[in-house]
Amino acid sequence: MSLKISVITPSLNSVDYIESAIQNVLEQHYDNFEHVVVDGGSSDGTVEILKKYPHVKWVSEPDRGQTHAMNKGFKMSQGDVLVYLNADDYFSPGAFHSVIPCFLQGAKMVVGKIMIEKEVGSSFLNDPRVEHIDILRHWELNAYPYNPVGYFYRREVYEAVNGFNEKNYMQDLEFLIAASHKFKFTKTDFLLGVYRDFETTITQRTQKRRGYWTNKNFSFITKYIDQLPVGTKEQYIKDRKIGYQEQRKIQKWKQYELIQHQISMDKSPNYLRRILYNGQLILNFPEKQKWLLKHLFTK
Predict the structure, then answer these.
(1) What CATH number was assigned to the domain covering residues 5-201?
(2) pLDDT on residue 206
(3) Mean pLDDT, residues 51-70 taken together
(4) What are the residue ranges spanned by the domains of the chain?
(5) Predicted local confidence at residue 284, as pLDDT
(6) Exposed, middle or buried: residue 65 (CB in 10 Å: 0-12, 13-18, 19+)?
(7) Disulfide check for 17: which of 6, 88, 127, 226 has CB 3.0–4.6 Å away?
(8) What integer is the mean pLDDT of 200-222?
């Protein structure tokens, strides 16, 4: 008998995407699956779409946010293998069939490649590493899978790490670090899915917060760092300091580029409009750029 896959989708006012997500799972053409949708009480027509699909196991009621919905979904599920699918992301054709042989050979968690789509039309491939020490270096490119569409795991993995931490908005990274500490990850070269990393996503919003790239913000990693050999720990701490500094620079320049785009598209907030001078963007004047950056990043 084939392994049962539980697909869990947290949802809130996802009318633009939820039907595509349901269809995407059906298009995997894998017979032994269930699709669990945990909706936070949508009022935009999402529930009406869910009612159209009798095979979907769903609930729609107020919850404490996405992480709470993810944990509720696990309790509602019955599958041998779990995967989370956000309503606006999607699996690649054949993703389910590609991971099942790994589990039949004893894998506890299977990690694959993810295509990251940006709102401006660009994309890049997330080809994640899978060793615990590499995932701890989370500031590095491809240190870990950037979205749950790219990893499947046995129920025992979720249970061993006590699910997702509702108090941490970086619950996916915390889960991956905890799971990689307890279990060996199996890597597949298959492109498992697509993550739409748009400006409106929780990931994008949180990474723009002041103080994001700080030790305090990633304090949940400390207990794992403390278990490293002394020499490895010292080098890690040095590398992390440099890595966070570089990420803060990148974060600021992303803001800077977004502001340029917003102003050019006339979608900038009022405080940015005041930066205009005689209809000319001061961004066009090199002598003003330093002042602009200081003004923006000390707000």
Answers:
(1) 3.90.550.10
(2) 64
(3) 94
(4) 5-201, 225-297
(5) 47
(6) middle
(7) 88
(8) 78
* Sign of the CA dihedral running 216, 83, 9, 96: positive
* Per-residue pLDDT tens digits for 228-276: 999 999 999 999 999 999 988 887 776 666 656 655 555 555 545 444 4
Closest by CA to 70, choosing from 217, 145, 168, is: 168
Whether the pTM exceeds 0.70: the reply is yes
